[in-house]
Predict the 3D structure of the following.
Amino acid sequence: MKDSKEITIGKRVLDDSTRFHWQDVSLDDFKTDRPIVLIFGGDGTKTDRAANGYAKFVSSMLGVFADEVDIYSVNYRKIFENDDDKRRVQELFVDKIFLPLVSKDGRKIAVEAACKNLRKITLFAHCCGKTNFDFMLNTFLIKCSLLNYSYAQTSKMLEQIFLVSYGIWARESLVPTLNILSPYDQMWAASERSWEELVKRLDDVKMSIEDRQKLKELTTDSFMSVLTQIWQMDKFFKQNDRCFVMQDKNILRLTGSAFHNDRSDDHPLYDLRRQPGWKPTDRVSKTGDYVSRCIGCALCNSVANSLQNQQTKELIPFSLADLKVQLESIVRPLNQDKSK
């Protein structure tokens, strides 16, 4: 299957010691000789400049690891006109990027080898970029079945791909995921969903005794409607800069206060980038700074594990549990949580 003109991929390439330029990469020539971060931006990513903007964002998050990985970003070029176009392009990406990591000469390889190969991949998705990737995963499942991998084997392989998803609610995920959807995201009508989940999980989320008691007082009245709960949560988070970490199966979620100082729309993410010295931008709130740190930690954690796996014969599995502990440690000072 030949490259598609509807969707392309590129990466930032260093010209000399200080300057980068954008380089288109043919899917026929796509290689994973070293760890990669693959970015699926929102559906508005239709120019090289937009795709490069996502790559710059991820690069700022990776710090010293940025030079150790290849950062690829997808350019959708135009909106797909029908489902047949989408399926064709999704199949192309699966055939060129993912299948070579789990098969050779049209045959499956050992599951452990496939796991180790897929551990090279870290994913970042913004908004509908996650939806596009989910469709590719469904295609991948079908292709693996045709290679005679069992569903259990394919699931085990997918546990080694890590995804950071921003700006959309991840109802479920076939891969370990860090999901960030701000309640102040104006793109989605149900952006307060993470607050609703927090109410359900108050006893399981790391927070101060004072915050837990206050949130329970505000939200656990049996006669309280969901809308009233949301209003109460909004009141609490406008008065307190907070960022809480929740776990829902193989998804870690961040929720809390607004990410921007002016409480503007939290759907755009570029202001969450790190500046030289890993400093935050002036536009983010205290909570936004900590959310940004968590995104950087998650990406660095995955990439560091990928680099470790390059040095060993045995697979060093990616651990969502370990990442959860690290993220809880990062946000503890913001949450004024003195517990250990």
About this structure: Residues 286-310 form the longest helix (25 residues).
